[in-house]
Automatic annotation (TrEMBL), chain A:
PANTHER family: TP53-REGULATED INHIBITOR OF APOPTOSIS 1. The keyword Kinase does not apply. Keywords: Disulfide bond. GO terms for biological process: phospholipid translocation. It comes from the Eukaryota. GO terms for cellular component: cytosol; mitochondrial intermembrane space; nucleus. InterPro entries: MDM35_apoptosis. PROSITE patterns: CHCH (PS51808). GO terms for molecular function: phosphatidic acid transfer activity. Belongs to the TRIAP1/MDM35 family. This is Mitochondrial distribution and morphology protein 35. The gene is MDM35_2.
UniProtKB/TrEMBL annotation, chain B:
This is PRELI/MSF1 domain-containing protein. Residues 2-187 form the PRELI/MSF1 domain. InterPro entries: PRELI/MSF1_dom, Slowmo/Ups. PROSITE patterns: PRELI_MSF1. It holds the Pfam family PRELI. Residues 155-176 are annotated as: Disordered. Signal peptide: none annotated. GO terms for cellular component: mitochondrial intermembrane space.
Amino acid sequence: MSASLAPECNDVKERYDTCFLKWYSEKYLRNTATTDECEPLFRQYKTCLTKALKERGIDQMLEDAKADNKENDAEYMKPVG
Amino acid sequence: MVKFYSNTYSYDYNFPAVSLAYFLRYPNPYSRHVASTDTIERYFDPDTQRLTTVRLHVKQSRLPPAVLKVLPKSAVGSDENGRAQSFILEKSVVDVRQGWMETESKNLDWNNVLSVIERHTFRRPEEGLGTADHRTDVEVSVTLKSRIGEQLRKKRQRWGDQATASSVAGAGGEEEPVVKQGWFSSWSSGAVRAAVESISLQRTERSQPKAQL
């Protein structure tokens, strides 16, 4: 499992990653997924990570990148006929 | 001034395996420079069955000596050993129904020196089931762009020749204004950009085949 840039989030990240890999290979790739079952774990992980990113001042860099990406999003998320 | 690299190949593994392998890229012994990987967004669309993921990687590596020689000291935020840290944003969309995956990775910092955008498209081959089911077609494209000297050029256009390299470079400029002016006038910033892009393109061409999953 890869490490997190914030060591304090490593545990919750590992739990999320394990859940995701299981869901991805057993449900998603077999076309039987109906929801993202790992979402609750992801929210826990995201809470830890957001705090860490803010403390390290990385959140601003991500916000700037998101603003740039907005135009690309519309193209990527367009449903294909 | 931009440089492109593109390539197509195919893996002898089926699409599900390749897409899973993409998420499991790190850690691996061939990429020790990747210090961390974090998932910062994940969205599953139940209607289209598309999975969108955004990840943040932190890479620690040494700047190539060729690039280090070409850059002014102020642009280089590395320590004495030339070690530098860089943030990479990776965005991916997987469509399991239609059998494709598109990814885009780019650096978030160092963009004034060099911006690298790497795009992959993984696709299940079009041919009918049977032999095609165990292969995945891949298209890679890399866009390299350097913006060194652009700030200086813009400032010069606004203020005339009063602007010096030190006023753009910021910290570290005061000690050696004479040297900096000389450096910029002897080798135009356009040439520096082209040099950085060419060196990066050469490294991309060498490392891309090795980087195949």
